[in-house]
Amino acid sequence: MTYYIGADIGTSGTKTVLFDVSGNVIASASEEYPLYQPQNGYAEQQPQDWANAVLHTVAAVVKQSGVDPQDVKGIGLSGQMHGLVMLDQANQVIRPAIIWCDQRTAAECEEITERVGAEQLIAITANPALTGFTASKILWVRNHEPENFAKCAHILLPKDYIRFVLTGEFATEVSDASGMQLLDIPNRCWSDTVLEKLDIDKNLLAKVYESPEITGTLTAEAARLTGLCEGTPVVGGAGDNAAAAIGTGVAEDGKAFTTIGTSGVVFAHSSQISIDPKGRVHTFCCAVPGCWHVMGVTQGAGLSLKWFRDLFCDAEKHTAKNMGVDEYYLMDKEAEQSPIGANRLLYLPYLMGERTPHLNANARGVFFGLSAMHQKRDLLRAVMEGVTYSLRDCLEVFREMQIEVDDMMACGGGGSSPLWRQMLADLYRCPIQTTKSKEGPALGAAILAMVGTGAYASVPEACRAIIAADKICQPDEKAVPEYEKYYQLYRKIYPSLRERYQELAAL
């Protein structure tokens, strides 16, 4: 029997899973780490926290499983996108990583647009300049921390820093590199034009691979720390959403998924490049060689519910612990007691600014309609509904672009909630499926390792063999028009507040 490891380096923590060649889970382990917000709108993490978590969890799954390390034939990496990791000549981390949800770089986005030109930027990178992307973070460090920029010898994405820790190689792959705003998306390589106009040395960047390609092998030190064999192949892997697509079987035209993790994503596969001329959704290279995907992003999806949990749900945490259940299960049950529309309470999930469709770093969260009659269950439901309205916004852009979706999967932590899946079905007005495997990005990363090491001939072939549907949630005919009323009101709130957000940011 052969085995494969998928390690998903997320924002809240790392999850590492050992699979057999059929995609069955043999062992899994997780480790959390903190997120730091030194100022309003800032978001940073320590790369060493990611490295420790990966080394610990890989060692844990090897030990738990009892498999012969020689039978582990490959490792795939998935990870949070857009983060900036800077190393010096000695390969030491220079400063904390500025991660995807950081919003400090509005001025640098203007600088990028001015230097490259808005039309040329979209033509090359398939996206407008965005605060979440890596290029603006590089410019921010150069503009605000010149002493740190001067030390920089290597620029890596979060999962690619883990690759360096495991293999000693500086490498990335097309799906994650797409989110740096430095990649020529149609040609799947670094853009000399963008790098020249932004005055960024190409030598700072890692070599670009396709997602299933082998990028390096485990060093002796990494083997010692993980319990694996020196020389175990590590493939390119994928950014978290591209890996989740593979882990849910979204590897062919017509297939799509919605994930509710820390951020929320609506993602559709495309064998051809499709670009929104307004820049509201992102077009990236996907983990299937020679293909692309379109993706709408809600910055504060699961983050909104986690924020609410951490601030207001100590009682649920305590009760859940005593009952031996997850606190989110109790929160779901509480939210179910509130009606559709949460007793006329709406929530805008813009805790960390917003990407699709507003592209506004200064947007912030709002409870609209709050009154003395509302109870915690109403606020809980309003948060869940608000996230779902935001995801519907993404799907509306796809529909404008005439991207046909006939197969929608749900994944991520929120996808495990029956209540949230029903909200998605009712607001999307289409069936929502889940997969039998709940491992998403970790499974996707492992599948890429299987393909890269020859267990399967192609990514679509592997997905067809491994991924199977589980539950299916149909729209509720009575609920659909009720949700539609609240969604149409939700869409009117942001335009009313757009200028007020700018005033708030200027205070």
Please tally the β strands and state the result.
24
Architecture (CATH level 2) name of the largest domain:
2-Layer Sandwich
**CATH fourth-tier homologous superfamily of the largest domain:** ATPase, nucleotide binding domain
Binned, the helix content reads 40-55%
The mean pLDDT is 96
* Bulk shape: globular
User: How many structural domains are formed by the residues?
Assistant: 2
**Strands of the biggest beta sheet: in what spatial order?**
3-2-1-5-15
- Rounded to an integer, what's the Rg over CA atoms? 22 Å
CATH topology of the largest domain: Nucleotidyltransferase, domain 5
Question: Which strand-content bin applies to the residues?
Answer: 15-25%
List keywords for this structure.
Nucleotidyltransferase, domain 5; single chain; five-stranded mixed sheet; 507 residues; 21% strand; 2 domains; alpha+beta
Give a brief rundown of this model.
The protein is an alpha+beta fold and 507 residues long. A hairpin with a 3-residue loop joins strand 1 and strand 2 (13-20). It starts with a strand and ends with a helix.
